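Section handout, structural biology tutorial.
Before the tutorial, make sure you can parse a SMILES string by hand: atoms, branches in parentheses, ring closures as digits. In the record below the ligand is zinc ion, and the chain has 367 residues. In the tutorial you will relate the predicted structure tokens back to the input. Do not try to memorize them.
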Amino acid sequence: MSIDISQEQIRVDVNAGSHPSTIWIGDGAADRLPVLLDAHGVGARRFVVSSPVIWRLHGDQVRRALGSVEPILIADGERYKNLQSVSRIYEALIRAGADRGSAIVAVGGGVIGDTAGFAAATFLRGITLVQVPTTLLAQVDSSIGGKVGVNHALGKNLIGAFHQPAVVVIDPLLLRTLPRREFRSGLYEVIKYGMIASRDLFDRIAGNTKAIFARDPAALVPAIVESCRIKADVVSQDERESGLRRILNYGHTVGHALEAATKYTRFRHGEAIAYGMLAAADLAVSRGALADRGRQALVQLITKLGPLPPLADLSIAEVLEAVRRDKKVINGRLHFVIAVAIGATAEINDVTETELRDVLQHLGLKG
Ligand SMILES: NC(=O)c1ccc[n+]([C@@H]2O[C@H](COP(=O)([O-])OP(=O)(O)OC[C@H]3O[C@@H](n4cnc5c(N)ncnc54)[C@H](O)[C@@H]3O)[C@@H](O)[C@H]2O)c1
Ligand SMILES: [Zn+2]
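Predicted structure of the complex:
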């Protein structure tokens, strides 16, 4: 690379088999979009996909960086993450004469990234994708790893593909406008990375909660970088989730079931995962795989971050039903990731229904 772009940005590489992907992280990274995209050979015809909300807040900045772009705007609620939105992106691309050398630049949270990413994976059998994530959840999780897709009326994330973004540009300054609850939702995924791979990251969030909530770069940027490194490392070893990548599902067995049982309206994704991690920790302790002080540290940290939506009105039976329907049941066996210490995991696939029932009861669900 001839241009030195490493001055202010931190680089993390995803060496996925199908396509390499490069992540750039740093305050102000969004202003450097043209330099970063040029450096990675992203074609000159760049179609920005975003949402009206995000464009109102950050459109001027992206426009200043990329030149006079006319964005393709789609609504970014979870219920718009569907094939109709994908179709609207195709239509805009076709009308504008996009070709195989064109690129989609997704500017938004996980909903925009997944939807625009799926359009990029499928339009003309795949065009270049750039992710510019604007939520903390998207910056540490959904924009990395190449999973793209949309929901079907009969289920979430049922339609999708693996399509690695050529470049992911992470600018933590974009998070200044993010509502606190959305920010917190992303933070639970950061805690997840701590639980599965880094005691240090876990301790740093616990020790700097205030500074992180204040979005102080000195505290926030290292937490984002560390999270991205962990995800990039796992994806590099197992792009298609045949093994190791499953550890990223820590907290997701029960988390996904809680989301599904409440029709994706009560919990932000991370909030459901917070409960899911508590459930996984409880299960691990009851099996003697995790010391109770590890579980207590997790409870303390999650409690410190703020309140979670209530779940006492949910019945164990309906959540169990949702667990059964989830993709984590493979050949009739439920795969469950547990932490055996803060920073280390194991996968188990012999969790009985009685164990799961007990865990849900401890979590506060009604029998
Ligand atoms: N592909 C993956 O690997 C992966 C991983 C995890 C989650 N996901 C998906 O991600 C989605 C959730 O993503 P999300 O949590 O980012 O939610 P989201 O995309 O719905 O965004 C949350 C809200 O924040 C607003 N917003 C976004 N950026 C903002 C900003 N900078 N300032 C102010 N408001 C802003 C949005 O308008 C939206 O209302 C789910 O659909 C989930 O399935 C995908
Ligand atoms: Zn998640």
